[in-house]
Automatic annotation (TrEMBL):
Family per record: Belongs to the HypE family.
Coiled coil: none
Residue span(s) of domain PurM-like C-terminal: 151-302
One of the Pfam families matching this protein, by short name: AIRS
GO BP annotations, alphabetical order: protein maturation
Protein name as catalogued: AIR synthase family protein
Organism: Clostridium thailandense
PANTHER family associated with the record: HYDROGENASE EXPRESSION_FORMATION PROTEIN HYPE, HYDROGENASE ISOENZYMES FORMATION PROTEIN HYPE
Domain PurM-like N-terminal residue range list: 33-138
Length: 329
């Protein structure tokens, strides 16, 4: 099998076949495109999500916190606590584990998220360190936003720039290899993208504003996230390549290694659908968060328009980060 997420059909089949119980307390169930589950507890509901870090070496602890807290933020709520599991190969030093936990501690402090527990183990089952986290959040009953809530005619909004995570991984993990693509100053700027991976602020703002759907843009890039939102909502989309906010630095890395920035891992950017896109953008920008309308939710298929040519968007496959790793080594 290829490295990366399972394809949509295989994953959906496995999820459907393994889900033997459906509890009445579960208001929103996780699934393909729906990263969080929401469980009702009286007047409140608990939001839960889990994800591992496998594709990065530098900043792995930082990334582990943000990709999980971002899932909770995509429900429009603030994350409260995190559980951390670290599986390390025999070659790992205690200092390396301490460094990862130091990163996790620093990022959770910034987000006001408590480390609730976890598990740390050295094992022959892995050949590099794997960090898997579970995050929980809390909201009033019925307030959490679902990925599946997109409506026909909604504006599609993305925050900040796309590919922040992918670009920062490329600059940090392959510093020496991209010196023929970027200047030293540009490499440092690309590394600094790791500072902007959280979408908790915009998620909470959008949740209070009252949006129809949200999804943090991770593995599979913006096209993968769009496809998952549309599939979960039973709708399609029409987006424009020229409207995608991609930095010059990111574009040059993608051009050099012939990878698609629209399918490049993009933690740090939230995908939002709302029938009041321009109004939401003004609110976000007042809070210092850049936001861009890239298209509309529509009935039918997912369509990308590139130089007036329409093409249907396929289900997400493995992220371009894994393609970059193969080409750059």
């Amino acid at each position: 099998m290829k490295v990366g997420k399972l394809n949509w059909d295989d994953l959906k089949k496995i999820i459907d076949n393994s889900r033997k119980v459906k509890r009445d307390e579960v208001r929103i169930r996780s699934g393909v495109g729906e990263d969080c589950s929401v469980v009702e507890f009286g007047n409140y509901e608990c939001i839960l999500s889990t994800d591992p870090i496998t594709g990065a070496d530098v900043n792995a602890g930082k990334l582990a916190v943000h990709i999980n807290c971002n899932d909770i933020a995509s429900c429009g709520v603030e994350p409260i606590g995190i559980l951390v599991t670290i599986l390390a190969p025999e070659s790992t030093s205690l200092n390396e584990i301490e460094k990862v936990m130091e990163e996790i501690g620093e990022e959770t402090q910034r987000l006001n998220v408590e480390i609730l527990g976890g598990h740390t183990e050295v094992t022959r089952a892995v050949n590099k360190m794997v960090i898997s986290c579970t995050v929980i959040g809390k909201a009033l009953k019925g307030r959490s936003v679902a990925t599946s809530g997109a409506k026909d005619g909604d504006d599609i909004i993305v925050t900040k720039q796309l590919c922040l995570e992918g670009t920062s991984i490329a600059a940090n993990d392959y510093n020496d290899k991209i010196k023929d693509v970027l200047t030293l100053e540009e490499i440092e700027e690309a590394k600094s993208y790791a500072k902007y991976l959280s979408v908790v602020k915009e998620g909470v703002i959008a949740g209070k504003f009252g949006v129809n759907s949200m999804h943090d843009i991770t593995e599979g890039g913006v096209l993968g996230a769009l496809w998952e939102v549309a599939e979960a909502s039973g709708l399609g989309f029409k987006v424009y390549k020229e409207k995608m906010p991609i930095s010059n630095i990111t574009q040059r890395i993608c051009d050099k290694y012939s990878i698609d920035p629209l399918r490049f891992i993009s933690s740090g950017s939230m995908l939002i659908t709302s029938d009041k896109g321009n109004e939401l953008i003004k609110i976000l920008e007042k809070e210092g968060i850049k936001a861009t309308i890239i298209g509309k939710i529509i009935k039918g298929k997912g369509i990308l328009i590139d130089e007036n040519i329409e093409r249907e968007v396929d289900p997400p496959e493995r992220d371009e980060l894994f393609v970059l790793e193969e080409k750059i080594q």
